[in-house]
Write a structure and sequence with these properties.
The chain has about 400 residues and is of the alpha+beta class. The protein has a domain at about 150-195 and about 275-395: Peroxisomal Thiolase, Chain A, domain 1, CATH 3.40.47. About 35% of the residues lie in helices and about 20% in strands. It has helices spanning about 30-45, 70-75, 95-105, 145-150, 160-170, 175-190, 195, 230-235, 265-270, 295-310, 325-335, 350, 355-370; strands spanning about 15, 20, 55-60, 85, 110-120, 125-130, 140, 205-210, 215-220, 255-260, 275-285, 315-320, 375-385, 390-395. β13 and β14 form a beta hairpin. α1 crosses α2 (about 70-75). It is globular, with a radius of gyration of 20 Å. The two termini are about 25 Å apart.
């Protein structure tokens, strides 16, 4: 459905740098860190957390006491009187959060909601499911991060196999993937120009602690690997006989992101620039055949475009969640896009994959890209586990 009443105040959003797996944020509790960062970010923007009507939290990797979800985070933020849902939909979590918040604003139930997405793929839990009927009464063990990366219980394959399946089905070569990866890396480097000027538009630093002692500050993404044509060419495929390498796929990461969604009147009050208006236009969702996850972003994007009553040609900015370079090769082929027009300033392929926060950071980058370009329509679409995807269309007026 098209949306008419849902806005995002300019500047009322933030992202931490994304840290590599087992890196600087590997020991920090995601929800406690998100509340700490959110409190500071809201204070810097002179936004009172007690003024929100609710909070939508996204988290996909369980952590200690995460059962208490959004109400706990709201309390830590300084808004103990609000509550809301805790959402988990793999890498579609961010857009699902936004769609939930948008529906509540559009129907008039709430004026303003805070969306926070937080995940830590590092040091995930090791879960044991008791099974007295098992051999010797032995239960079932699961590592929610690696076991689910390694096998889809419905489609039957690993995440990487979905990329191999699409490469085989669509005739996507190793060379096309390497070329796409090099382009995406160069686009990310554009975000680092002029002392990271683009990233400074939304990124907030994280104090690094050991016990009670501050030992440093994380100010930039951690885990981005220098990428060269020769380096990519020398990598072996992840799966023997395949065409996907570790260089042409993303890496697990840790981080958190926040974004405010509200009515137009409230957006004007909270915006850091009254000359910029950001409206949410539509959402889209899709699911494709088993084991073809990278293809799902295309029908999800088309669903969002159709709901907004626009075409891909109307979009001044396009971002994708691209866990594999194959995602973008396929996406650009299907929509007839020049790859350099997609994912300007970076994408998850390069800066990492903390799951729930991934799409929300991409949406924020899309907003900033559109603002720098003088406004226009923007599309974000990204695949998720279960051969599914979600998409969102936003409109920026400057």
């Amino acid at each position: 459905m098209p949306y008419e009443k849902v806005f995002i105040p300019y500047g009322a959003y933030w992202s931490t740098p994304f840290a590599r797996w087992q890196g600087s944020l590997g020991q920090r509790h995601s929800l406690e860190l998100a509340a700490e960062i959110g409190s500071a970010a809201l204070a810097a923007r002179e936004i009172n957390p007690a003024g929100f009507d609710g909070l939508v939290l996204g988290i996909t990797v369980p952590q200690n006491a995460s059962f208490y979800g959004a109400p706990w985070v709201a309390g830590m933020l300084g808004a103990p009187n609000i509550t809301g849902p805790t959402v988990s939909q793999a890498c579609a979590t961010s857009v699902r959060m936004l769609s939930i918040a948008a529906q509540e604003v559009e129907c008039g139930q709430y004026e303003s909601l805070l969306n926070i997405a937080a995940d830590r793929t590092s040091n995930g839990p090791h879960i044991y499911y008791p099974d007295p009927s098992g051999p010797g009464g032995k239960g079932i063990a699961e590592d929610p991060v690696w076991d689910n990366f390694g096998r889809d219980p419905w489609a039957g394959g690993a995440m990487v196999s979905t990329a191999e399946n699409v490469a085989s089905k669509e005739g996507i070569s190793r060379e096309e993937q390497d070329a796409m990866t090099l382009l995406r890396y160069s686009q990310y480097e554009d975000s680092l120009a002029d002392d990271c000027a683009f990233q400074h538009r939304y990124m907030v630093p994280v104090e690094l602690r050991r016990g009670r002692r501050t030992i440093g500050t994380l100010e930039q993404d951690e885990g981005v690997h220098p990428t060269t044509e020769d380096g990519l060419a020398n990598l072996r495929p992840v799966v023997e006989g395949g065409v996907v390498t570790f260089g042409a796929q993303t890496h697990p990461a840790d981080g958190n992101v926040g974004l405010v969604m509200c009515t137009e009147e409230r957006a004007k009050e909270l915006s850091s620039d009254s000359g910029v208006s950001i409206r949410v236009r539509s959402f889209g969702t899709a699911r494709v055949d088993k084991g073809l996850m990278p293809m799902a972003a295309v029908p999800a994007a088309q669903d969002a475009l159709d709901s907004a009553g626009i075409t891909i040609e109307d979009c001044a900015g396009i971002k994708t969640h691209n866990p594999f370079a194959i995602n973008d090769v396929y996406f650009c082929r299907q929509f007839g896009l020049q790859p350099e027009t997609v994912n300007r300033y970076g994408s998850p392929l390069i800066w990492g994959h903390p799951q729930a926060p991934t799409g929300l950071r991409a949406v924020i980058e899309l907003i900033e890209e559109l603002t720098l370009g003088g406004g226009g329509l923007g599309l974000f679409s990204g695949c998720a586990a279960g051969d599914s995807a979600m998409a969102v269309v936003v409109e920026v007026k400057c």
